[in-house]
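Extended Data, panel c. Modelled sequence:
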Amino acid sequence: MRRAKTRVQAPPASPEMLVERLRALLDAERVVGDLRRYFGIGRPPGATAFTGSRFEHLAGGGDRPEVADRITADDLVAVQTLSVTVRAPVALAILEGPLGVRLSGLLQAIPRDMDMVEADASDLAPGSPAGRAWHLLEGQSDVGWVIAGKLLARKRPRLLPVYDNVVRCALGRPRPSFWVALHAALRADDGSLNRQLLALRQTAGLPETVSALRVCDVAVWMGHRAEGHACPR
């Protein structure tokens, strides 16, 4: 159920401000319960988890070796669990056309077995293979920045975060990009924020296949909605 009142947070001006906002959301008493509820941990018989709990796990995951460097039909279904849909013309161009070939070439150059906190800022910059893949997808008709980000988060869940309207409403629009700002935030203070995300994953009983980035996304999304914001997913 949506609530009528929406309060938009000011865009963070620095990684320090981004860390401060993330800490406020991650330190809330409800976070572990929110994570367990989202992923269906300990749910009673008949209760269902959020569809997004299948995002990274559907069909074994988008980053498993045999499909890591191409976008598959399973990936297109997976993003639907996060309430977006890739329209048929673009889906066909990805699965059977030159768009898919171009994306595959870029995916081959994006590290698969690397967490964002371990990456260099250059791995996330606009001119990097990941940045070029995002711009290629974002520029397609009826795709845009939200779907582009979710597709790439499916392919590289440890390296690239989900960033959509709810997360932007909660954390703002840092410069030069959300990826670069989050990377700096995760590395600040000797990686303390990343360690907090991993600790939350363990406390909530989530599998290790749920990345630190996904723990962050779910915690922010659930917490921001609980604060009374009505941001579209």
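Residues 1-10 have pLDDT under 50 and may be disordered. This feature is highlighted in the accompanying rendering.
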